[in-house]
Amino acid sequence: MNGNYLEDNTHKRRLTYLLLVVAPLAFIFVSLFLGRYPVSISDVIYILWCKISGTPCSLPEICQTIVWDIRLPRAILGAMVGGCLAVSGAAFQGIFRNPLVNSGILGVSSGAGFGAALAIILFNATAPTYIFAFAFGILAVVLSYLIAQVYNATPTIMLVLGGVIVSSVFSALISLTKYVADPMDQLPAIVFWLMGSLASARYQDISIAGIPMLIGISGLLAIRWRINVMSMGDKEAQSLGINPVINKGIVIACATLATAGAVCVSGIIGWVGLVMPHIGRMLVGNDNRILIPTSLSLGACFLILVDNLGRMLTGSEIPLGILTALVGAPFFVYLLKITKGGGW
């Protein structure tokens, strides 16, 4: 009987992992024929087959461009960004033992926002914007971590307070860049970037930002069992042979790489790192060994869905940050109600 139970449990886990992989792929495929320019499912399949196999395609060039060069990289990048934000949020919630933590808790989003705004003012070009956003996002987390070292340790409260301080400083600097920016050209570009969008997604963005995102996600997936131990508290982790300071640093580094890579190509997209991990817990529980990949899949599916809604609801695209806030804010109120403002 025990053997049958273990066999059934293994079968269910394999089925769960398969579903977590298939779901984002299905969302990506569906997004290829959704939009104001109609493309049938059969045409999408035919275009994909022609591009992958290298055979000539008889469909109009504009149809091929829309599916292969516009919608596909946008859907892939949306899946990567959503997955990174969600999995980073789940990791931070685990090590900080707080359900109200998100992927930007240590200031990476505000730091990246300032870096992008500064690059727009100085260069007004895509490549420097990506570089500055990524670099300042990393810098913000490093500063938060250094502030937490005041007492020669990295207690949770000091890390969070450090993130609040750094976020406040970079938010002020973002306001300063808006104030000095050219209102005819630079200011609209800064505002649009800060609201979050995948409208300019290209394969080049995937190849550049995909490196830190994949490194960060791979690291979190590899050490997700340690997040279970650290979520029990520092003393319990030490008693089980886990160094909480070193392992928190590893988790923070991986989550920061993933988040900074995502934010530098998509802008600031809120609520994904808060909402998706909680939906994952409702589905699979608190075990980070399955919660981390579940959050990854849910975040990917959610952002693809929101992006499709943003480009289909109106004649002009709605920024992703607006739509995710409309979903996340009511959920946050519900979260405050069930937690009563307390910890985990």
Automatic annotation (TrEMBL):
Q: Which UniProt keywords apply?
A: Cell membrane, Membrane, Transmembrane, Transmembrane helix, Transport
List membrane-spanning regions.
15-34, 75-96, 102-123, 130-151, 157-176, 206-227, 250-276, 288-306, 318-336
Give the bilayer topology: Multi-pass membrane protein
- What's a single GO BP term from this record? siderophore-iron import into cell
Q: Which GO terms describe its molecular function?
A: transmembrane transporter activity
Q: Which residues form a coiled coil?
A: none
**Which species is this record about?**
Syntrophomonas zehnderi OL-4
In terms of InterPro entries, this protein maps to:
ABC_BtuC-like (IPR037294), ABC_transptr_permease_BtuC (IPR000522)
UniProt-recorded name of the protein: ABC transporter, permease protein
Per UniProt, subcellular location reads as: Cell membrane
